[in-house]
């Protein structure tokens, strides 16, 4: 009786761990709502977003790996525009899944955005005071990060690698959170296997497909991609040194993968809104990402290759 019950339960149990468009939508609606005022670095709403992520990490039973629980606070600096409050409090949020393995895979996404358009880099003609919701950039990547934490912490598998999930602060001010982490690591850098970055994965365009950068950053990636199938279109790009926080890891000679669904007319504008996100496609992107990570875990710790 008991075993029959378990057999019936198992498929639902496993299914519940895989990425879901419904949860993705919920995360993005929360993080990119007008209430969050664009999650500008130094704003109370940015702190609120960090709190949302930390609460989720806690719920997923991750070990805090910041310097203050899940948080790794630092001071960010606005450099692109001259503002009286150029120094701003920022934080990374770090949750660790300890599988007792020698090496660790980093999965990251930045959670800050442009706030009310007063920190430079808005592409609106009159950005001041307008909420830059940043649904694609990068509530979509944070939703992906939370889904990865959910999947790997609840799949009842003890993987041969540990996972460090990092939500980076102050990316929009120039990769400041990822650089701060790498200069002040809470885990030895030599123990990191590779880094997977998600930045703007919510605007899947079937003509383009999802781009996966970093293919040239290790000779192991071609093996990892072999035989991988997806319901969505994807393509690889050898470069690993651009686009987002992955560039900071690449600079430290760590192999990377960078997921990105491409630019669009709402990029860095107040119109980057939640209702424009394709959560079904994002679910498929995350399933593809899981396949790749699981393939990569069949391989020994990767060796970095610089991309020319
Ligand atoms: Zn971004």
Euclidean distance between termini CA atoms: 61 Å
Largest sheet: 9 strands, mixed
Order of helices and strands: HHHEEEEHEHEEHEHEH
Bound molecules: zinc ion
Radius of gyration: 19 Å
Strand content: 15-25%
The count of DSSP E runs of length 2 or more, i.e. the number of strands, is 9
CATH top level class name = Alpha Beta
**Total DSSP helices:** 8
Kindly report the CATH topology. Answer: Aminopeptidase
Mean pLDDT over the residues: 94
How helical, in percent, are the residues? 25-40%
**Unreliable residue runs:** none
- Give the overall shape, derived from the CA principal axes: globular
CATH superfamily: Zn peptidases
What count of structural domains?
1
Structural class: alpha/beta
CATH architectural category: 3-Layer(aba) Sandwich
What does this structure look like?
With 308 residues, the chain is of the alpha/beta class. The chain has one domain: Aminopeptidase (3-Layer(aba) Sandwich), CATH 3.40.630. The chain contains eight helices and nine strands. Strands 1, 2, 3, 4, 5, 6, 7, 8 and 9 form a nine-stranded mixed sheet that branches. Bound molecules: zinc ion (ZN). Zinc ion (ZN) is lined by residues 110, 137-138, 171, 199-200, 244. Residues 110, 137-138, 171, 199-200, 244 line the site of zinc ion (ZN).
Q: How would you sum up this structure in a few lines?
A:
One of its GO terms (biological process) is proteolysis. By secondary structure, the protein is an alpha/beta fold.
